[in-house]
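Table S4 entry, Phosphate-binding protein.
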Amino acid sequence: MLKMKKVWVLFTLVLMLGVLAACGGDDTSSDSGTETEELSGSVVVDGSGTVYPLMARIAEEYMVTEEENVSVEVARSGTSAGFKKFLAEDGTDFNDASRHIKEEEQQMADDLGIEVKELKVALDGLTFVLHPDNDWATELTEQQVIDIFKADSDIEKWSDINPDFPDEDINTYGPNENHGTYEFFYETILEEQDLKADANLQQDYSTLVTLVSEDVNAIGFFGFGYYVNNQDQLQAVNVDFGEGPVEPSLDTIAEDGDYAPFTRPVFTYLNVNMAKEKPQVKDYAVYLMENVNTFAGETGFAPLPEEEVQALVDELKGL
């Protein structure tokens, strides 16, 4: 009988120790009682110079307020150059793009076994900019803008548009072929008609801002955000699409807005393989879409409908 009591006491002590260990031995909860996962590592983003200000702003906020141990590296080699880095073994996690992915790029992703997810992040308005002292070309028709840039056109001087304009050569500027903005302009606005041979095309948007701001006979183009952030050096052309001049703005840049003919969606593309392998990549993708509308306006982009954004958030959470 005494032996049975000893066994029972020993069993009770073992059981109590097991309960205590379960309660306090493997505590992964925070002070608030919420389960948390410590994230670290890097998230690598490259691509569109147009989308860069929005992506850089979101990355900054994420690292400061959400995950200080995650490094989000955002570069801006251009949409096409960025896709080359994205569609490679050990490529980037995201590629920002001011156009849709091309068929040949998607085929390359398929060949490499990379699952790609398109994330529409905002709307941008292609904006034509002038030197601040240009007081004659602040309002142009859509066709006049096209004729200024296309090779097969008789417009070479400002006076070719209007005899009251200066008898001076028009100097055209824009981003080069690495940029989705160039491709949108060439393919959609010019309908694949060649640009003038002497068009000054640049890789860096800040260089374009400087060139136009120093040339009174200049006209250039890029995304609305670069104009907004450089209004002290530039002025925008109000474009007449048939019902009077329209100023590019967050209100007019929309799929059904008055500036719609020069409006386009912008994107970031996610390597889904990386999101499944690296928790920080998925976490950042979700944060990005949950907050993209908050930062769109301040960086020169028109926000998307909330239901459209929420649908993408739900899809990302389900990866």
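The domain at 42-123+265-317 is CATH 3.40.190.10 (D-Maltodextrin-Binding Protein; domain 2).
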